[in-house]
Automatic annotation (TrEMBL):
Keywords: ATP-binding, Nucleotide-binding, Repeat. SUPFAM superfamilies: P-loop containing nucleoside triphosphate hydrolases. It comes from Agromyces indicus. It comes from the Bacteria. CDD domains: ABCF_EF-3 (cd03221). Gene3D superfamilies: P-loop containing nucleotide triphosphate hydrolases. This is ATP-binding cassette domain-containing protein. The keyword Metal-binding does not apply. InterPro entries: AAA+_ATPase, ABC_transporter-like_ATP-bd, ABC_transporter-like_CS, ABCF, P-loop_NTPase. Residues 11-271, 385-585 form the ABC transporter domain. Pfam families: ABC_tran. One of its GO terms (molecular function) is ATP binding. The keyword Repeat applies.
Protein backbone atom coordinates (compact mmCIF):
# COMPACT_ATOMS: atom_id res chain seq x y z
CA UNK A 1 0.00 0.00 0.00
CA UNK A 2 1.17 3.51 -0.77
CA UNK A 3 0.30 6.26 1.72
CA UNK A 4 1.16 9.80 0.74
CA UNK A 5 1.34 12.66 3.22
CA UNK A 6 0.77 15.81 1.25
CA UNK A 7 0.15 19.49 1.67
CA UNK A 8 -3.11 18.96 -0.18
CA UNK A 9 -6.21 19.77 1.81
CA UNK A 10 -8.07 16.84 0.22
CA UNK A 11 -8.24 13.24 1.44
CA UNK A 12 -8.15 10.68 -1.35
CA UNK A 13 -8.34 6.87 -1.52
CA UNK A 14 -7.64 5.01 -4.79
CA UNK A 15 -8.24 1.29 -5.33
CA UNK A 16 -8.10 0.40 -1.64
CA UNK A 17 -8.49 -3.29 -0.81
CA UNK A 18 -8.16 -4.85 2.65
CA UNK A 19 -8.27 -8.55 3.48
CA UNK A 20 -7.73 -10.68 6.56
CA UNK A 21 -6.72 -14.11 5.30
CA UNK A 22 -9.42 -15.24 2.90
CA UNK A 23 -11.90 -12.67 4.23
CA UNK A 24 -12.02 -9.55 2.07
CA UNK A 25 -13.35 -6.51 3.93
CA UNK A 26 -12.84 -3.74 1.35
CA UNK A 27 -12.29 -4.09 -2.37
CA UNK A 28 -11.19 -1.49 -4.95
CA UNK A 29 -12.60 1.44 -3.02
CA UNK A 30 -12.16 4.97 -4.39
CA UNK A 31 -13.24 8.16 -2.68
CA UNK A 32 -12.27 11.81 -2.35
CA UNK A 33 -13.25 14.10 0.52
CA UNK A 34 -12.69 17.82 0.00
CA UNK A 35 -12.25 20.49 2.70
CA UNK A 36 -15.48 21.45 4.42
CA UNK A 37 -16.98 18.10 3.39
CA UNK A 38 -18.07 15.53 5.98
CA UNK A 39 -18.46 11.93 4.83
CA UNK A 40 -20.47 9.59 7.06
CA UNK A 41 -19.65 5.87 6.92
CA UNK A 42 -22.58 3.52 7.38
CA UNK A 43 -23.14 -0.21 7.00
CA UNK A 44 -23.66 -3.39 8.94
CA UNK A 45 -21.42 -4.27 11.87
CA UNK A 46 -18.23 -5.79 10.46
CA UNK A 47 -18.64 -4.08 7.06
CA UNK A 48 -15.25 -2.38 7.43
CA UNK A 49 -16.00 1.13 8.76
CA UNK A 50 -13.43 1.07 11.56
CA UNK A 51 -10.97 -0.76 9.31
CA UNK A 52 -11.25 1.93 6.64
CA UNK A 53 -10.64 4.73 9.15
CA UNK A 54 -7.61 3.00 10.64
CA UNK A 55 -6.09 2.21 7.26
CA UNK A 56 -6.50 5.83 6.14
CA UNK A 57 -4.79 6.92 9.35
CA UNK A 58 -1.93 4.49 8.73
CA UNK A 59 -2.83 2.25 11.68
CA UNK A 60 -3.05 -1.13 9.95
CA UNK A 61 -4.33 -4.03 12.03
CA UNK A 62 -2.12 -7.14 12.46
CA UNK A 63 -2.72 -9.74 9.78
CA UNK A 64 -4.28 -7.27 7.33
CA UNK A 65 -3.23 -7.35 3.67
CA UNK A 66 -3.70 -3.86 2.25
CA UNK A 67 -3.41 -2.67 -1.34
CA UNK A 68 -4.10 0.72 -2.88
CA UNK A 69 -3.07 4.36 -2.60
CA UNK A 70 -4.00 6.91 0.06
CA UNK A 71 -3.22 10.62 -0.04
CA UNK A 72 -4.11 12.69 2.99
CA UNK A 73 -3.00 15.83 4.82
CA UNK A 74 0.13 15.26 6.88
CA UNK A 75 -1.73 16.13 10.09
CA UNK A 76 -4.63 13.68 10.10
CA UNK A 77 -6.19 12.75 13.45
CA UNK A 78 -8.07 9.55 14.31
CA UNK A 79 -10.57 9.00 17.14
CA UNK A 80 -10.62 5.31 18.09
CA UNK A 81 -13.60 3.43 19.49
CA UNK A 82 -11.13 1.78 21.86
CA UNK A 83 -9.03 4.42 23.60
CA UNK A 84 -5.21 4.40 23.39
CA UNK A 85 -4.50 6.02 26.77
CA UNK A 86 -2.42 4.44 29.51
CA UNK A 87 -4.46 4.29 32.75
CA UNK A 88 -1.51 5.84 34.62
CA UNK A 89 -1.43 8.95 32.39
CA UNK A 90 -2.66 12.18 33.95
CA UNK A 91 -5.26 14.39 32.32
CA UNK A 92 -2.95 17.40 31.99
CA UNK A 93 -0.19 15.23 30.50
CA UNK A 94 -2.51 13.87 27.81
CA UNK A 95 -3.83 17.34 26.99
CA UNK A 96 -0.33 18.72 26.61
CA UNK A 97 0.75 15.74 24.51
CA UNK A 98 -2.23 16.33 22.22
CA UNK A 99 -0.97 19.81 21.33
CA UNK A 100 2.67 18.80 20.82
CA UNK A 101 2.31 19.25 17.04
CA UNK A 102 0.64 22.63 17.56
CA UNK A 103 3.47 23.74 19.83
CA UNK A 104 5.98 22.58 17.20
CA UNK A 105 4.17 24.61 14.54
CA UNK A 106 4.36 27.67 16.77
CA UNK A 107 8.11 27.12 17.34
CA UNK A 108 8.65 26.80 13.59
CA UNK A 109 6.70 30.01 12.97
CA UNK A 110 8.90 31.89 15.45
CA UNK A 111 12.02 30.43 13.88
CA UNK A 112 10.83 31.32 10.37
CA UNK A 113 10.05 34.88 11.50
CA UNK A 114 13.53 35.24 13.01
CA UNK A 115 15.13 33.85 9.86
CA UNK A 116 13.12 36.26 7.73
CA UNK A 117 14.53 39.25 9.58
CA UNK A 118 18.10 37.88 9.87
CA UNK A 119 20.76 39.68 7.80
CA UNK A 120 21.84 36.50 5.98
CA UNK A 121 18.30 36.04 4.61
CA UNK A 122 18.66 39.38 2.83
CA UNK A 123 22.09 38.70 1.38
CA UNK A 124 20.73 37.54 -1.98
CA UNK A 125 17.39 37.47 -3.73
CA UNK A 126 17.39 33.65 -3.55
CA UNK A 127 18.00 33.66 0.22
CA UNK A 128 15.27 36.23 0.72
CA UNK A 129 12.85 34.16 -1.36
CA UNK A 130 13.66 31.00 0.63
CA UNK A 131 13.12 32.79 3.93
CA UNK A 132 9.85 34.30 2.71
CA UNK A 133 8.60 30.93 1.48
CA UNK A 134 9.51 29.29 4.78
CA UNK A 135 7.62 31.94 6.72
CA UNK A 136 4.57 31.73 4.43
CA UNK A 137 4.39 27.95 4.88
CA UNK A 138 4.79 28.23 8.65
CA UNK A 139 2.19 30.97 8.89
CA UNK A 140 -0.33 28.97 6.87
CA UNK A 141 0.21 25.92 9.10
CA UNK A 142 -0.14 28.07 12.22
CA UNK A 143 -3.41 29.54 10.98
CA UNK A 144 -4.81 26.09 10.17
CA UNK A 145 -3.82 24.80 13.63
CA UNK A 146 -5.01 28.00 15.36
CA UNK A 147 -1.85 28.05 17.48
CA UNK A 148 -2.71 31.31 19.23
CA UNK A 149 -5.82 30.02 21.00
CA UNK A 150 -4.78 26.64 22.46
CA UNK A 151 -5.72 27.45 26.06
CA UNK A 152 -9.04 29.04 25.11
CA UNK A 153 -9.97 26.12 22.84
CA UNK A 154 -8.96 23.62 25.55
CA UNK A 155 -11.35 25.20 28.04
CA UNK A 156 -14.14 25.46 25.44
CA UNK A 157 -13.77 21.81 24.46
CA UNK A 158 -13.73 20.50 28.02
CA UNK A 159 -16.76 22.60 28.88
CA UNK A 160 -18.67 21.76 25.69
CA UNK A 161 -18.11 18.04 26.14
CA UNK A 162 -19.18 18.05 29.78
CA UNK A 163 -15.69 17.77 31.27
CA UNK A 164 -15.24 21.23 32.79
CA UNK A 165 -14.96 19.85 36.32
CA UNK A 166 -12.45 17.19 35.39
CA UNK A 167 -9.40 17.48 37.66
CA UNK A 168 -6.26 18.04 35.60
CA UNK A 169 -4.21 15.90 37.99
CA UNK A 170 -6.54 12.88 37.79
CA UNK A 171 -5.28 9.71 36.18
CA UNK A 172 -7.03 8.34 33.10
CA UNK A 173 -7.74 5.08 34.91
CA UNK A 174 -9.84 6.99 37.45
CA UNK A 175 -12.26 8.28 34.80
CA UNK A 176 -15.49 6.52 33.86
CA UNK A 177 -15.80 4.93 30.43
CA UNK A 178 -17.95 7.82 29.20
CA UNK A 179 -15.52 10.40 30.56
CA UNK A 180 -12.58 8.69 28.85
CA UNK A 181 -14.41 8.67 25.51
CA UNK A 182 -15.31 12.35 25.76
CA UNK A 183 -11.80 13.22 26.92
CA UNK A 184 -10.29 11.42 23.92
CA UNK A 185 -12.55 13.44 21.63
CA UNK A 186 -11.58 16.70 23.36
CA UNK A 187 -7.86 15.88 23.09
CA UNK A 188 -8.19 15.09 19.38
CA UNK A 189 -10.10 18.27 18.56
CA UNK A 190 -7.64 20.30 20.62
CA UNK A 191 -4.77 19.00 18.46
CA UNK A 192 -6.53 20.72 15.53
CA UNK A 193 -5.55 18.26 12.76
CA UNK A 194 -5.99 19.20 9.11
CA UNK A 195 -8.24 16.15 8.55
CA UNK A 196 -10.46 14.31 11.04
CA UNK A 197 -11.25 10.59 11.18
CA UNK A 198 -13.85 9.78 13.84
CA UNK A 199 -15.11 6.36 14.93
CA UNK A 200 -18.49 6.61 16.69
CA UNK A 201 -17.87 10.14 18.03
CA UNK A 202 -21.29 10.56 19.68
CA UNK A 203 -21.11 7.49 21.90
CA UNK A 204 -21.34 8.73 25.52
CA UNK A 205 -22.44 12.23 24.48
CA UNK A 206 -25.59 13.78 25.93
CA UNK A 207 -27.72 16.25 23.96
CA UNK A 208 -25.67 19.32 24.85
CA UNK A 209 -22.35 17.65 24.07
CA UNK A 210 -23.68 16.19 20.79
CA UNK A 211 -24.94 19.63 19.75
CA UNK A 212 -21.57 21.16 20.63
CA UNK A 213 -19.76 18.55 18.51
CA UNK A 214 -22.13 19.09 15.59
CA UNK A 215 -21.32 22.81 15.56
CA UNK A 216 -17.58 22.13 15.72
CA UNK A 217 -17.66 19.68 12.83
CA UNK A 218 -19.86 21.84 10.62
CA UNK A 219 -17.29 24.62 11.06
CA UNK A 220 -14.27 22.33 10.50
CA UNK A 221 -12.20 23.59 7.58
CA UNK A 222 -10.61 20.30 6.59
CA UNK A 223 -12.09 17.00 5.37
CA UNK A 224 -13.95 14.88 7.94
CA UNK A 225 -14.73 11.16 7.67
CA UNK A 226 -16.74 9.59 10.46
CA UNK A 227 -18.43 6.29 11.21
CA UNK A 228 -21.63 6.65 13.19
CA UNK A 229 -24.80 4.80 14.11
CA UNK A 230 -26.31 8.04 15.46
CA UNK A 231 -29.13 8.68 13.01
CA UNK A 232 -29.84 12.25 14.15
CA UNK A 233 -26.12 13.09 14.03
CA UNK A 234 -25.83 11.72 10.48
CA UNK A 235 -28.77 13.87 9.40
CA UNK A 236 -27.30 17.03 10.90
CA UNK A 237 -23.60 16.69 10.10
CA UNK A 238 -22.94 14.53 7.02
CA UNK A 239 -22.67 16.19 3.62
CA UNK A 240 -22.39 12.73 2.04
CA UNK A 241 -22.73 9.08 3.03
CA UNK A 242 -20.61 6.06 2.13
CA UNK A 243 -22.53 2.83 2.49
CA UNK A 244 -20.09 -0.07 2.88
CA UNK A 245 -22.82 -2.69 2.50
CA UNK A 246 -21.75 -4.82 -0.51
CA UNK A 247 -25.40 -5.29 -1.47
CA UNK A 248 -25.94 -1.54 -1.82
CA UNK A 249 -23.16 -1.23 -4.40
CA UNK A 250 -25.02 -3.70 -6.59
CA UNK A 251 -28.25 -1.80 -6.20
CA UNK A 252 -26.59 1.53 -6.98
CA UNK A 253 -24.89 0.09 -10.04
CA UNK A 254 -28.28 -1.09 -11.24
CA UNK A 255 -29.70 2.37 -10.60
CA UNK A 256 -27.02 3.96 -12.79
CA UNK A 257 -27.90 1.71 -15.71
CA UNK A 258 -31.60 2.47 -15.47
CA UNK A 259 -33.66 5.43 -14.43
CA UNK A 260 -32.65 7.45 -11.38
CA UNK A 261 -34.36 6.52 -8.12
CA UNK A 262 -37.41 8.55 -7.30
CA UNK A 263 -36.54 11.64 -5.31
CA UNK A 264 -32.78 11.21 -5.67
CA UNK A 265 -32.24 13.77 -8.43
CA UNK A 266 -28.64 14.85 -8.93
CA UNK A 267 -27.77 13.64 -5.45
CA UNK A 268 -27.82 9.98 -6.46
CA UNK A 269 -24.66 7.95 -6.19
CA UNK A 270 -21.68 9.89 -7.46
CA UNK A 271 -19.26 7.05 -6.88
CA UNK A 272 -19.61 3.30 -6.58
CA UNK A 273 -16.98 0.71 -5.78
CA UNK A 274 -17.41 -3.02 -5.40
CA UNK A 275 -18.01 -2.53 -1.69
CA UNK A 276 -19.45 0.92 -1.28
CA UNK A 277 -21.45 3.77 -2.67
CA UNK A 278 -21.31 7.47 -1.90
CA UNK A 279 -24.66 9.21 -1.62
CA UNK A 280 -24.81 12.99 -1.58
CA UNK A 281 -27.99 13.61 0.40
CA UNK A 282 -29.09 13.45 4.02
CA UNK A 283 -29.50 10.21 5.95
CA UNK A 284 -33.30 10.49 5.89
CA UNK A 285 -33.22 10.93 2.10
CA UNK A 286 -30.80 8.05 1.82
CA UNK A 287 -33.15 5.65 3.59
CA UNK A 288 -35.85 6.31 0.98
CA UNK A 289 -33.39 5.97 -1.92
CA UNK A 290 -31.92 2.73 -0.56
CA UNK A 291 -35.38 1.19 -0.17
CA UNK A 292 -36.31 2.17 -3.74
CA UNK A 293 -33.00 0.85 -5.11
CA UNK A 294 -33.48 -2.51 -3.45
CA UNK A 295 -37.07 -2.74 -4.65
CA UNK A 296 -35.95 -1.95 -8.22
CA UNK A 297 -33.16 -4.52 -7.97
CA UNK A 298 -35.61 -7.18 -6.76
CA UNK A 299 -38.10 -6.33 -9.53
CA UNK A 300 -35.47 -6.53 -12.25
CA UNK A 301 -34.16 -9.83 -10.89
CA UNK A 302 -37.66 -11.32 -10.83
CA UNK A 303 -38.46 -10.06 -14.34
CA UNK A 304 -35.19 -11.41 -15.76
CA UNK A 305 -35.68 -14.81 -14.12
CA UNK A 306 -39.18 -14.99 -15.59
CA UNK A 307 -37.82 -14.10 -19.03
CA UNK A 308 -35.06 -16.70 -18.70
CA UNK A 309 -37.59 -19.41 -17.90
CA UNK A 310 -39.71 -18.38 -20.91
CA UNK A 311 -36.72 -18.37 -23.30
CA UNK A 312 -35.56 -21.77 -22.11
CA UNK A 313 -39.00 -23.21 -22.84
CA UNK A 314 -39.09 -21.53 -26.28
CA UNK A 315 -35.64 -22.85 -27.22
CA UNK A 316 -36.49 -26.36 -26.07
CA UNK A 317 -39.84 -26.49 -27.90
CA UNK A 318 -38.62 -24.87 -31.14
CA UNK A 319 -35.61 -27.16 -31.21
CA UNK A 320 -37.91 -30.19 -30.99
CA UNK A 321 -40.05 -28.77 -33.84
CA UNK A 322 -37.01 -28.50 -36.10
CA UNK A 323 -35.54 -31.83 -35.04
CA UNK A 324 -38.75 -33.76 -35.60
CA UNK A 325 -39.36 -32.24 -39.05
CA UNK A 326 -43.04 -33.00 -38.62
CA UNK A 327 -45.67 -32.09 -41.19
CA UNK A 328 -47.99 -29.21 -40.47
CA UNK A 329 -50.98 -30.07 -38.35
CA UNK A 330 -54.54 -29.26 -39.41
CA UNK A 331 -54.45 -26.01 -37.51
CA UNK A 332 -51.26 -25.06 -39.36
CA UNK A 333 -52.98 -25.03 -42.78
CA UNK A 334 -52.03 -21.38 -43.28
CA UNK A 335 -48.49 -22.72 -43.98
CA UNK A 336 -49.61 -24.85 -46.87
CA UNK A 337 -48.40 -22.26 -49.45
CA UNK A 338 -44.84 -22.41 -48.06
CA UNK A 339 -42.33 -25.05 -48.75
CA UNK A 340 -41.31 -27.21 -45.85
CA UNK A 341 -37.72 -25.99 -46.00
CA UNK A 342 -38.83 -22.34 -45.66
CA UNK A 343 -40.88 -23.24 -42.62
CA UNK A 344 -37.94 -24.97 -41.05
CA UNK A 345 -35.66 -21.99 -41.82
CA UNK A 346 -38.08 -19.59 -40.17
CA UNK A 347 -38.34 -21.80 -37.11
CA UNK A 348 -34.56 -22.14 -36.99
CA UNK A 349 -34.15 -18.35 -37.09
CA UNK A 350 -36.55 -18.00 -34.17
CA UNK A 351 -34.64 -20.68 -32.26
CA UNK A 352 -31.31 -18.95 -32.95
CA UNK A 353 -32.71 -15.57 -31.89
CA UNK A 354 -34.09 -17.07 -28.72
CA UNK A 355 -30.77 -18.81 -28.04
CA UNK A 356 -28.83 -15.58 -28.57
CA UNK A 357 -31.18 -13.67 -26.28
CA UNK A 358 -30.96 -16.47 -23.71
CA UNK A 359 -27.15 -16.51 -23.79
CA UNK A 360 -26.98 -12.71 -23.46
CA UNK A 361 -29.42 -12.62 -20.55
CA UNK A 362 -27.64 -15.49 -18.78
CA UNK A 363 -24.42 -13.49 -19.09
CA UNK A 364 -25.79 -10.10 -17.98
CA UNK A 365 -28.54 -11.05 -15.52
CA UNK A 366 -28.47 -9.23 -12.21
CA UNK A 367 -27.76 -11.32 -9.16
CA UNK A 368 -30.43 -11.95 -6.57
CA UNK A 369 -30.33 -9.17 -3.97
CA UNK A 370 -28.42 -10.51 -0.97
CA UNK A 371 -30.62 -11.21 2.01
CA UNK A 372 -29.59 -8.71 4.69
CA UNK A 373 -28.87 -10.12 8.12
CA UNK A 374 -32.10 -9.40 9.94
CA UNK A 375 -32.74 -9.56 13.65
CA UNK A 376 -35.09 -12.47 14.23
CA UNK A 377 -36.63 -10.85 17.28
CA UNK A 378 -36.94 -12.08 20.83
CA UNK A 379 -36.96 -15.92 21.07
CA UNK A 380 -39.84 -17.66 22.74
CA UNK A 381 -39.40 -18.83 26.28
CA UNK A 382 -40.17 -15.68 28.24
CA UNK A 383 -43.40 -14.51 29.75
CA UNK A 384 -44.53 -11.60 31.85
CA UNK A 385 -44.07 -12.42 35.53
CA UNK A 386 -46.70 -11.21 37.96
CA UNK A 387 -45.56 -9.99 41.33
CA UNK A 388 -47.54 -10.47 44.50
CA UNK A 389 -48.39 -6.77 44.43
CA UNK A 390 -48.08 -6.28 40.69
CA UNK A 391 -44.42 -5.27 41.06
CA UNK A 392 -41.26 -7.06 39.97
CA UNK A 393 -38.80 -4.49 41.27
CA UNK A 394 -39.31 -1.85 43.93
CA UNK A 395 -36.74 0.85 44.71
CA UNK A 396 -37.14 3.02 47.81
CA UNK A 397 -34.96 5.93 48.99
CA UNK A 398 -31.79 4.58 47.38
CA UNK A 399 -28.52 6.42 47.03
CA UNK A 400 -25.08 5.66 45.69
CA UNK A 401 -22.89 8.35 47.15
CA UNK A 402 -21.91 10.97 44.59
CA UNK A 403 -23.66 9.11 41.78
CA UNK A 404 -27.38 8.63 42.35
CA UNK A 405 -30.30 9.51 44.59
CA UNK A 406 -33.78 8.19 43.84
CA UNK A 407 -36.88 8.34 46.01
CA UNK A 408 -38.85 5.52 44.41
CA UNK A 409 -39.20 3.39 41.30
CA UNK A 410 -41.72 0.63 40.61
CA UNK A 411 -41.24 -1.88 37.79
CA UNK A 412 -44.27 -3.92 36.76
CA UNK A 413 -44.54 -6.96 34.48
CA UNK A 414 -44.94 -4.88 31.29
CA UNK A 415 -43.21 -1.63 32.28
CA UNK A 416 -41.77 0.38 29.37
CA UNK A 417 -39.42 3.01 30.82
CA UNK A 418 -36.94 5.29 29.07
CA UNK A 419 -34.25 6.67 31.40
CA UNK A 420 -32.69 9.94 30.24
CA UNK A 421 -30.36 12.58 31.62
CA UNK A 422 -27.04 14.29 31.08
CA UNK A 423 -23.73 12.46 31.36
CA UNK A 424 -23.06 11.60 34.97
CA UNK A 425 -26.73 11.72 35.93
CA UNK A 426 -26.65 8.11 37.12
CA UNK A 427 -28.34 6.20 34.30
CA UNK A 428 -25.82 3.35 34.20
CA UNK A 429 -25.65 3.36 38.00
CA UNK A 430 -29.43 2.88 38.23
CA UNK A 431 -29.38 -0.04 35.78
CA UNK A 432 -26.52 -1.66 37.70
CA UNK A 433 -28.57 -1.35 40.91
CA UNK A 434 -31.62 -2.93 39.31
CA UNK A 435 -29.50 -5.75 37.87
CA UNK A 436 -28.02 -6.50 41.28
CA UNK A 437 -24.49 -5.70 40.18
CA UNK A 438 -24.19 -2.74 42.53
CA UNK A 439 -25.37 -2.34 46.12
CA UNK A 440 -26.81 0.99 47.28
CA UNK A 441 -25.07 2.93 50.03
CA UNK A 442 -28.51 3.38 51.57
CA UNK A 443 -32.08 2.47 50.74
CA UNK A 444 -33.56 -0.76 49.41
CA UNK A 445 -33.97 -2.56 46.12
CA UNK A 446 -36.55 -5.34 46.43
CA UNK A 447 -36.88 -8.03 43.74
CA UNK A 448 -39.63 -10.58 43.27
CA UNK A 449 -38.53 -14.14 43.99
CA UNK A 450 -37.55 -16.04 40.85
CA UNK A 451 -37.04 -12.84 38.86
CA UNK A 452 -34.65 -13.01 35.92
CA UNK A 453 -32.99 -9.67 35.13
CA UNK A 454 -30.81 -9.23 32.03
CA UNK A 455 -28.50 -6.28 31.38
CA UNK A 456 -27.02 -5.24 28.05
CA UNK A 457 -24.06 -3.18 29.18
CA UNK A 458 -22.74 -0.12 27.43
CA UNK A 459 -19.16 -1.39 27.09
CA UNK A 460 -18.66 -5.06 26.25
CA UNK A 461 -15.51 -6.89 27.28
CA UNK A 462 -15.01 -10.63 26.82
CA UNK A 463 -12.45 -12.16 29.17
CA UNK A 464 -11.35 -14.75 26.59
CA UNK A 465 -10.66 -12.96 23.26
CA UNK A 466 -9.65 -16.25 21.61
CA UNK A 467 -13.02 -17.90 22.25
CA UNK A 468 -15.50 -17.92 19.37
CA UNK A 469 -19.08 -16.62 19.50
CA UNK A 470 -20.33 -20.19 19.21
CA UNK A 471 -18.26 -21.31 22.22
CA UNK A 472 -19.19 -18.30 24.35
CA UNK A 473 -22.86 -18.80 23.52
CA UNK A 474 -22.78 -22.46 24.58
CA UNK A 475 -20.88 -21.59 27.77
CA UNK A 476 -23.44 -18.97 28.75
CA UNK A 477 -26.62 -20.90 27.89
CA UNK A 478 -25.60 -24.50 28.24
CA UNK A 479 -25.47 -26.98 25.41
CA UNK A 480 -29.16 -27.92 25.52
CA UNK A 481 -30.51 -24.35 25.40
CA UNK A 482 -27.94 -23.40 22.73
CA UNK A 483 -29.24 -26.24 20.55
CA UNK A 484 -32.88 -25.20 21.03
CA UNK A 485 -32.12 -21.55 20.22
CA UNK A 486 -29.16 -21.61 17.78
CA UNK A 487 -27.05 -18.47 17.73
CA UNK A 488 -27.19 -18.31 13.93
CA UNK A 489 -31.01 -18.18 14.02
CA UNK A 490 -31.06 -14.93 16.02
CA UNK A 491 -29.82 -12.89 13.05
CA UNK A 492 -27.18 -11.14 15.14
CA UNK A 493 -23.95 -12.90 14.11
CA UNK A 494 -23.21 -13.83 10.51
CA UNK A 495 -22.50 -17.49 9.78
CA UNK A 496 -18.94 -16.72 8.68
CA UNK A 497 -18.23 -15.09 12.07
CA UNK A 498 -19.58 -17.83 14.34
CA UNK A 499 -16.18 -19.49 14.65
CA UNK A 500 -13.91 -16.45 14.48
CA UNK A 501 -12.12 -15.41 17.71
CA UNK A 502 -14.30 -12.81 19.41
CA UNK A 503 -11.24 -10.57 19.81
CA UNK A 504 -11.12 -10.24 16.02
CA UNK A 505 -14.73 -9.11 15.71
CA UNK A 506 -15.61 -5.43 15.45
CA UNK A 507 -16.89 -3.60 18.51
CA UNK A 508 -20.37 -3.68 16.99
CA UNK A 509 -20.21 -7.42 16.36
CA UNK A 510 -19.11 -7.99 19.95
CA UNK A 511 -22.10 -5.99 21.17
CA UNK A 512 -24.39 -8.06 18.94
CA UNK A 513 -23.02 -11.16 20.66
CA UNK A 514 -23.64 -9.61 24.08
CA UNK A 515 -27.24 -8.92 23.02
CA UNK A 516 -27.62 -12.53 21.86
CA UNK A 517 -26.38 -13.83 25.23
CA UNK A 518 -29.14 -11.86 26.98
CA UNK A 519 -32.13 -12.51 24.72
CA UNK A 520 -31.43 -16.20 24.06
CA UNK A 521 -32.92 -16.81 27.52
CA UNK A 522 -35.22 -13.79 27.67
CA UNK A 523 -35.29 -12.19 31.13
CA UNK A 524 -38.42 -10.97 32.90
CA UNK A 525 -36.82 -7.52 33.19
CA UNK A 526 -34.65 -6.42 30.27
CA UNK A 527 -32.25 -3.54 31.03
CA UNK A 528 -30.46 -1.87 28.11
CA UNK A 529 -27.70 0.71 28.57
CA UNK A 530 -27.33 2.82 25.40
CA UNK A 531 -28.61 -0.07 23.26
CA UNK A 532 -28.04 1.64 19.91
CA UNK A 533 -24.34 2.39 20.55
CA UNK A 534 -22.16 0.41 18.11
CA UNK A 535 -25.16 -1.35 16.56
CA UNK A 536 -25.85 -0.96 12.86
CA UNK A 537 -28.63 1.38 11.83
CA UNK A 538 -30.75 -1.51 10.57
CA UNK A 539 -30.35 -3.54 13.76
CA UNK A 540 -31.05 -0.51 15.96
CA UNK A 541 -34.41 -0.06 14.24
CA UNK A 542 -35.22 -3.77 14.39
CA UNK A 543 -34.32 -3.91 18.08
CA UNK A 544 -36.54 -0.91 18.87
CA UNK A 545 -39.45 -2.62 17.13
CA UNK A 546 -38.82 -5.92 18.93
CA UNK A 547 -38.71 -4.22 22.33
CA UNK A 548 -42.18 -2.81 21.75
CA UNK A 549 -43.61 -6.35 21.81
CA UNK A 550 -41.22 -7.76 24.41
CA UNK A 551 -43.06 -10.16 26.80
CA UNK A 552 -41.71 -8.56 29.94
CA UNK A 553 -40.51 -5.27 31.41
CA UNK A 554 -38.10 -3.11 29.38
CA UNK A 555 -35.98 -0.28 30.79
CA UNK A 556 -33.74 1.65 28.39
CA UNK A 557 -31.12 4.27 29.25
CA UNK A 558 -30.26 6.25 26.15
CA UNK A 559 -28.95 9.50 24.69
CA UNK A 560 -30.13 8.43 21.21
CA UNK A 561 -32.25 11.33 19.99
CA UNK A 562 -33.82 9.24 17.21
CA UNK A 563 -34.89 6.55 19.69
CA UNK A 564 -36.19 9.07 22.19
CA UNK A 565 -38.35 10.86 19.60
CA UNK A 566 -40.06 7.55 18.79
CA UNK A 567 -40.48 6.33 22.39
CA UNK A 568 -44.12 5.95 23.45
CA UNK A 569 -43.69 4.58 26.98
CA UNK A 570 -42.95 6.19 30.31
CA UNK A 571 -39.87 8.35 30.90
CA UNK A 572 -37.65 8.94 33.91
CA UNK A 573 -35.36 11.97 33.64
CA UNK A 574 -32.35 11.94 35.95
CA UNK A 575 -30.69 15.24 36.79
CA UNK A 576 -27.74 16.44 38.89
CA UNK A 577 -28.61 17.02 42.53
CA UNK A 578 -28.05 20.63 43.68
CA UNK A 579 -25.81 19.42 46.50
CA UNK A 580 -23.62 17.45 44.12
CA UNK A 581 -25.31 14.08 44.43
CA UNK A 582 -27.87 13.02 41.86
CA UNK A 583 -31.61 12.96 41.91
CA UNK A 584 -34.49 12.06 39.61
CA UNK A 585 -37.56 13.92 38.47
Amino acid sequence: MSVTHSHSSHLRVDGLSVAFGDRRVLSDLDLTVAPDRRLGLIGENGAGKSTLLRVIAGDVLPGAVVDGRIARPSRTGLLFQELPFDPADRVDEVLEASVADVRAIEVELDAAASALSAPESKSTDAAAARAADRYAVALEAAERADVWSVERRRDELLDGLGLAGLGRDRRIGELSGGQRSRFALAALLLSSPDALLLDEPTNHLDDDAAGFLEERLRAWRGPVVFASHDRAFLDRVATGLLDLDPGRAGAAALARTGSAPAGAGSREAVLAASVGTVFGGSFSEYLAVRAEERARWARQHDEEQSELRRLRVVVAERARDVAHGRAARDNDKFLKHFKRENVEQAVSRRVRNAELRLAELERTQVARPPSPMAFAGIPSGSHALEGDDGQLLHVADVAVDGRLELDALHVGPLTRLLITGANGAGKSTLLALLAGRLAPDRGTVRRRRGLRVGLLEQDVRFADPDATPRVLYERALGERRAERVPLADLGLIGSRDLDRPVGRLSVGQQRRLALALVIAAPPHVFLLDEPTNHLSLALAGELEEALGAYPGAVLVASHDRWLRRRWDGEELALRPHPAGALAAT
